[in-house]
User: Fold these one by one.
Assistant:
Number 1:
Amino acid sequence: MLAAMSERTESRKQRAARRAGEFPPAPEPLPRPVLDSHTHLDITVSEYGVPLRAPRSPAEDGSGGTAADPVAAAIEVAAAVGVDRLVQVGVDVDSSRWGAEVAGRYPAVLATVALHPNEAPRLADLDEALRQIEALAAHDRVRGIGETGMDFFRTGDEGRAAQEESFRAHVAIAKRYGKALVVHDRDAHADVLRILDDEGAPDTVVLHCFSGDAEFAAECVRRGYLLSYAGTVTFGSAGALREAAALTPIDQILVETDAPYLTPMPHRGRPNASYLIPLTVRSLAATTGADLDELCAAVSATGDRVFGPW
């Protein structure tokens, strides 16, 4: 009896380990289309492949055909549940260049370009990297500068000067090109606000994967910033984050995946992708008390105001 129980337990562990690397099933579609305001298609596809089953090309009949373009497949899977626009976010020169190229090929995709705050201290020539980012910022399909900002979780004291220099430079680029600034803020709330206040924030600022409490949310709302909520708002431990969402005006809310990270409940720990946005949107509707249809319409309109037209 004990042997049989152990065998079944091991089998469950094996199944759980296997599922951890698989994309979750598709959620119920939304009543109105929305956007994923922050995703990393390059990382998602390279690390996990295509969400669900990719459409196959007509040539694939067992005689050497290949799967359809994985980016097109990811867009199609997202559109099927009402996520019809994606913002591909750059974190270094290479990913920013890739994003600008992808946005030029796919009407459903726009791009942002930047050096991630944890990337800045690692660069041998920060100025040259910033020059390349600024060149990419001029592209029409590049609609944001980010993700940039401050991160005190992964970068220690020795790297913070480079982070701040990089962040200030990105703020200036966003203002020169009239594009949204997409801010990465991890354990650095006060410093992010300080730098934005010092430099004079661009007209449009998006706090990516908003992670603050109600007090910080109120400060951001007062400044007119957009708060973009990720799957973290669905986590059981995220009570303070839900309090922040509850006081955010509906026209200052965006929704994102940060895919392949931060997968919403009940699939936390599995790979994330844009087609899972409906889980986060429904959680935000419950948290804010907004009608789901009204929230979808507001998020969509805000996305067009910040990044559009697509």
Number 2:
Amino acid sequence: MTTVAAVPVKDLDNAKQRLIPVLSPAERRALAQAMLEDVLGALSRAGLDAVWVVTRDREVVELARRFAVTILEEAENRGHTEAVTLAQAQATRMGADRFLTIPGDVPRVTADEIRAVCRVAEPGRSAVFVPSRSGFGTNAALLSPPAVMPFKFGEPSFANHLSAARTRGLEPRVLELPGLGLDIDGPEDLTTLATGPDGTESARLLRSWGFPRRPA
């Protein structure tokens, strides 16, 4: 059973706008890069058939090429949903059995969590979703087959995805996973990441900047 994963990545210059009050532009760029490294590292260890990075940012392309990934280049930066839809269509064209997508800002994701998402997918038509800690966002989605339903990201995407799946006759499986659940979006998330395990480049970077003591 062929499983492909896609990670949509916007341009690094405009990454993490909600962190502007606490991080400089250079820090936001560096954090976005570190988080992407953490995510691609976990995906590369998960034993999937293919990992794709969807982007139009040349620096992201250079970073991603350090891992065993394929680059899907966008003609323009149209947003998260459009980037995932592009990869979803490519997975369908190549005849993949399953399509997984996770964002590039979940640095605590582990290979074990990715494998857990794949394990709970039922044979035939199925959908698996991992919510964000808030319960509003969708931090991972696995579809079988890839075109079994459309995506639409942006809160409250988690509830919307569950509803869309049921409308198409699917009974979605839901997994709550601590690594995948933590997307770094607001200042409070920086403290959570910095006080966690030492295993991520992102946490080490934040500690080098003085977190968690540095005001967030």
